[in-house]
Amino acid sequence: DAGVIQSPRHEVTEMGQEVTLRCKPISGHNSLFWYRQTMMRGLELLIYFNNNVPIDDSGMPEDRFSAKMPNASFSTLKIQPSEPRDSAVYFCASSLDRRGREQFFGPGTRLTVL
Amino acid sequence: KQEVTQIPAALSVPEGENLVLNCSFTDSAIYNLQWFRQDPGKGLTSLLLIQSSQREQTSGRLNASLDKSSGRSTLYIAASQPGDSATYLCAVEANSKLTFGKGITLSVRP
Which of A47, A77, A49, A51 is nearest to A64 (CA)? Predict the structure, then answer.
Protein backbone atom coordinates (compact mmCIF):
# COMPACT_ATOMS: atom_id res chain seq x y z
CA ASP A 1 0.00 0.00 0.00
CA ALA A 2 1.26 3.49 -0.83
CA GLY A 3 0.15 4.92 2.49
CA VAL A 4 -1.63 8.24 2.88
CA ILE A 5 -0.84 10.53 -0.03
CA GLN A 6 -0.87 14.30 0.26
CA SER A 7 -0.34 16.97 -2.36
CA PRO A 8 1.27 19.33 -2.82
CA ARG A 9 4.19 18.69 -0.48
CA HIS A 10 5.08 22.36 -0.39
CA GLU A 11 2.95 25.39 -1.15
CA VAL A 12 4.01 29.02 -1.12
CA THR A 13 1.32 31.59 -1.74
CA GLU A 14 0.52 35.21 -1.09
CA MET A 15 -1.90 36.49 1.46
CA GLY A 16 -5.45 36.54 0.17
CA GLN A 17 -5.03 33.67 -2.24
CA GLU A 18 -7.03 30.47 -2.11
CA VAL A 19 -5.16 27.34 -1.08
CA THR A 20 -6.35 23.77 -1.61
CA LEU A 21 -4.64 20.82 0.04
CA ARG A 22 -5.40 17.29 -1.08
CA CYS A 23 -5.38 13.90 0.59
CA LYS A 24 -5.86 10.32 -0.51
CA PRO A 25 -6.36 7.99 2.48
CA ILE A 26 -5.27 4.38 2.66
CA SER A 27 -7.65 2.17 0.71
CA GLY A 28 -10.22 0.58 2.98
CA HIS A 29 -9.85 3.12 5.79
CA ASN A 30 -13.14 4.77 6.62
CA SER A 31 -11.94 7.59 8.87
CA LEU A 32 -9.93 10.60 7.77
CA PHE A 33 -8.40 13.34 9.88
CA TRP A 34 -6.89 16.73 9.06
CA TYR A 35 -4.27 18.15 11.45
CA ARG A 36 -2.19 21.31 11.60
CA GLN A 37 1.27 21.47 13.18
CA THR A 38 3.03 24.64 14.30
CA MET A 39 5.92 25.26 16.64
CA MET A 40 3.75 27.27 18.99
CA ARG A 41 0.69 25.07 19.21
CA GLY A 42 2.01 21.65 18.26
CA LEU A 43 -0.27 19.22 16.43
CA GLU A 44 -3.96 20.08 16.45
CA LEU A 45 -6.94 18.25 15.00
CA LEU A 46 -8.90 20.42 12.59
CA ILE A 47 -11.67 18.10 11.39
CA TYR A 48 -12.39 14.42 10.92
CA PHE A 49 -14.66 12.40 8.66
CA ASN A 50 -16.18 8.98 9.11
CA ASN A 51 -17.55 7.24 6.02
CA ASN A 52 -17.11 10.53 4.10
CA VAL A 53 -19.28 12.47 6.57
CA PRO A 54 -17.79 15.29 8.66
CA ILE A 55 -18.18 14.29 12.30
CA ASP A 56 -16.39 17.01 14.23
CA ASP A 57 -15.11 20.29 12.81
CA SER A 58 -14.69 22.07 16.14
CA GLY A 59 -10.97 22.42 15.51
CA MET A 60 -11.38 24.41 12.32
CA PRO A 61 -10.03 27.83 13.25
CA GLU A 62 -12.50 29.99 11.37
CA ASP A 63 -14.81 30.23 8.40
CA ARG A 64 -11.91 30.70 6.04
CA PHE A 65 -11.22 26.99 6.44
CA SER A 66 -13.39 24.32 4.82
CA ALA A 67 -12.99 20.60 4.19
CA LYS A 68 -14.76 18.14 1.96
CA MET A 69 -14.67 14.42 1.34
CA PRO A 70 -16.63 13.73 -1.84
CA ASN A 71 -15.73 10.03 -1.84
CA ALA A 72 -13.83 7.44 0.16
CA SER A 73 -10.56 8.04 -1.63
CA PHE A 74 -10.25 11.82 -1.67
CA SER A 75 -10.46 14.80 0.65
CA THR A 76 -9.61 18.48 0.39
CA LEU A 77 -8.84 21.20 2.88
CA LYS A 78 -9.36 24.68 1.52
CA ILE A 79 -8.30 28.02 2.95
CA GLN A 80 -9.87 31.10 1.41
CA PRO A 81 -8.56 33.73 1.80
CA SER A 82 -5.21 32.63 3.20
CA GLU A 83 -3.32 34.67 5.83
CA PRO A 84 0.31 34.55 7.02
CA ARG A 85 -0.78 32.99 10.34
CA ASP A 86 -2.04 29.97 8.40
CA SER A 87 1.57 29.02 7.66
CA ALA A 88 2.06 25.55 9.10
CA VAL A 89 2.43 21.91 8.15
CA TYR A 90 -0.92 20.29 7.41
CA PHE A 91 -1.21 16.55 7.88
CA CYS A 92 -3.85 14.13 6.75
CA ALA A 93 -4.28 10.80 8.53
CA SER A 94 -6.56 7.82 8.07
CA SER A 95 -7.62 4.84 10.14
CA LEU A 96 -9.78 1.74 9.88
CA ASP A 97 -12.27 3.23 12.27
CA ARG A 98 -12.71 6.54 13.99
CA ARG A 99 -12.12 5.09 17.44
CA GLY A 100 -9.47 2.93 18.94
CA ARG A 101 -7.40 2.28 15.84
CA GLU A 102 -3.94 3.38 14.79
CA GLN A 103 -3.88 6.50 12.70
CA PHE A 104 -1.58 6.51 9.69
CA PHE A 105 -0.21 9.89 8.70
CA GLY A 106 0.70 11.32 5.33
CA PRO A 107 3.97 13.21 4.75
CA GLY A 108 2.28 16.58 5.20
CA THR A 109 1.97 19.78 3.18
CA ARG A 110 4.18 22.64 4.27
CA LEU A 111 2.22 25.84 3.63
CA THR A 112 3.87 29.26 3.61
CA VAL A 113 1.65 32.31 3.22
CA LEU A 114 3.62 35.47 2.47
CA LYS B 1 -10.10 20.12 28.20
CA GLN B 2 -7.48 17.42 27.81
CA GLU B 3 -3.88 18.58 28.03
CA VAL B 4 -0.89 16.39 27.22
CA THR B 5 2.55 17.34 28.50
CA GLN B 6 5.93 15.97 27.54
CA ILE B 7 8.97 17.09 29.50
CA PRO B 8 11.77 17.75 28.74
CA ALA B 9 11.35 19.16 25.24
CA ALA B 10 14.75 17.86 24.19
CA LEU B 11 17.10 15.14 25.33
CA SER B 12 20.63 14.15 24.28
CA VAL B 13 22.14 10.81 25.27
CA PRO B 14 25.16 8.73 24.26
CA GLU B 15 24.65 5.68 22.11
CA GLY B 16 23.83 2.50 24.00
CA GLU B 17 22.04 4.19 26.88
CA ASN B 18 18.63 2.98 27.99
CA LEU B 19 16.20 5.88 28.28
CA VAL B 20 12.69 6.78 29.32
CA LEU B 21 10.46 9.39 27.73
CA ASN B 22 7.60 10.69 29.84
CA CYS B 23 4.09 11.77 28.94
CA SER B 24 1.35 13.05 31.24
CA PHE B 25 -2.28 13.87 30.58
CA THR B 26 -4.89 15.68 32.65
CA ASP B 27 -8.08 13.71 31.95
CA SER B 28 -7.92 9.97 32.65
CA ALA B 29 -11.08 9.24 30.64
CA ILE B 30 -9.17 8.10 27.59
CA TYR B 31 -9.80 5.32 25.11
CA ASN B 32 -6.17 4.67 24.29
CA LEU B 33 -2.72 6.24 24.11
CA GLN B 34 -0.36 6.21 21.15
CA TRP B 35 3.32 6.95 20.81
CA PHE B 36 4.53 8.35 17.50
CA ARG B 37 7.89 9.09 15.97
CA GLN B 38 8.46 12.09 13.69
CA ASP B 39 11.61 12.56 11.65
CA PRO B 40 12.49 16.09 10.45
CA GLY B 41 10.31 17.14 7.54
CA LYS B 42 8.33 13.91 7.64
CA GLY B 43 4.96 12.70 8.84
CA LEU B 44 4.27 10.75 11.99
CA THR B 45 4.87 7.03 12.32
CA SER B 46 2.89 5.11 14.89
CA LEU B 47 5.15 3.16 17.26
CA LEU B 48 2.85 1.69 19.88
CA LEU B 49 -0.82 1.89 20.80
CA ILE B 50 -1.98 1.01 24.32
CA GLN B 51 -5.68 0.48 24.92
CA SER B 52 -7.02 1.98 28.14
CA SER B 53 -7.49 -1.51 29.60
CA GLN B 54 -3.85 -2.42 29.00
CA ARG B 55 -0.79 -1.61 31.07
CA GLU B 56 1.94 -1.90 28.47
CA GLN B 57 2.91 -2.74 24.91
CA THR B 58 6.24 -3.86 23.51
CA SER B 59 7.77 -3.71 20.05
CA GLY B 60 11.40 -4.63 19.65
CA ARG B 61 13.53 -2.29 21.76
CA LEU B 62 10.50 -0.16 22.64
CA ASN B 63 8.23 -0.62 25.62
CA ALA B 64 5.37 1.70 26.46
CA SER B 65 3.48 1.69 29.74
CA LEU B 66 0.23 3.32 30.73
CA ASP B 67 -1.03 4.29 34.18
CA LYS B 68 -4.42 5.75 33.41
CA SER B 69 -5.34 6.60 36.98
CA SER B 70 -2.29 8.78 37.47
CA GLY B 71 -2.41 10.18 33.92
CA ARG B 72 1.05 8.99 32.94
CA SER B 73 2.75 7.01 30.21
CA THR B 74 6.38 6.21 29.57
CA LEU B 75 8.20 5.08 26.46
CA TYR B 76 11.29 3.02 27.26
CA ILE B 77 13.96 2.71 24.58
CA ALA B 78 16.59 0.06 25.20
CA ALA B 79 20.15 0.28 23.92
CA SER B 80 19.60 3.55 22.07
CA GLN B 81 21.12 4.02 18.61
CA PRO B 82 21.84 7.13 16.50
CA GLY B 83 18.98 6.02 14.24
CA ASP B 84 16.59 6.57 17.14
CA SER B 85 17.20 10.32 16.87
CA ALA B 86 13.81 11.89 16.16
CA THR B 87 10.92 13.63 17.88
CA TYR B 88 8.66 11.36 19.91
CA LEU B 89 5.07 12.41 20.47
CA CYS B 90 2.43 10.88 22.66
CA ALA B 91 -1.27 11.29 21.98
CA VAL B 92 -4.37 10.29 23.94
CA GLU B 93 -7.66 9.41 22.32
CA ALA B 94 -11.01 10.46 23.74
CA ASN B 95 -14.30 10.99 21.90
CA SER B 96 -12.64 9.71 18.71
CA LYS B 97 -10.11 12.56 18.79
CA LEU B 98 -6.38 12.51 19.44
CA THR B 99 -4.78 15.17 21.65
CA PHE B 100 -1.04 15.41 21.18
CA GLY B 101 1.83 16.48 23.37
CA LYS B 102 4.41 18.77 21.80
CA GLY B 103 6.97 16.00 21.66
CA ILE B 104 10.45 15.24 22.93
CA THR B 105 13.30 15.72 20.49
CA LEU B 106 15.81 12.95 21.11
CA SER B 107 19.40 13.05 19.93
CA VAL B 108 21.51 9.91 20.32
CA ARG B 109 25.22 10.72 20.04
CA PRO B 110 27.51 8.11 18.41
Answer: A77
How high is the mean pLDDT in each 10-residue block of chain B (110 residues)? Answer: 94 96 94 94 92 93 95 97 97 89 96
Cβ pair B49:A102 closer than 8 A: yes
pLDDT at position A98 is 63
CB contact under 8 A, B43 and A108: yes
Given a cut of 70, whether residue A64 has pLDDT beyond it is yes
- Nearest residue to A69 (alpha-carbon basis) of A29, A37, A15, A19: A29
**Across the interface, do B46 and A102 touch by the CB < 8 Å criterion?**
yes
Q: Which residue has the higher pLDDT, A97 or A79?
A: A79
List CB contacts (< 8 A) between A55 and chain B: 96
Residues of B at the A interface, defined by Cβ within 8 angstroms: 31-32, 34, 36, 42-46, 49, 51, 89, 91, 93, 95-103
Sign of the C-alpha dihedral, residues B94, B22, B89, A97?
A: negative
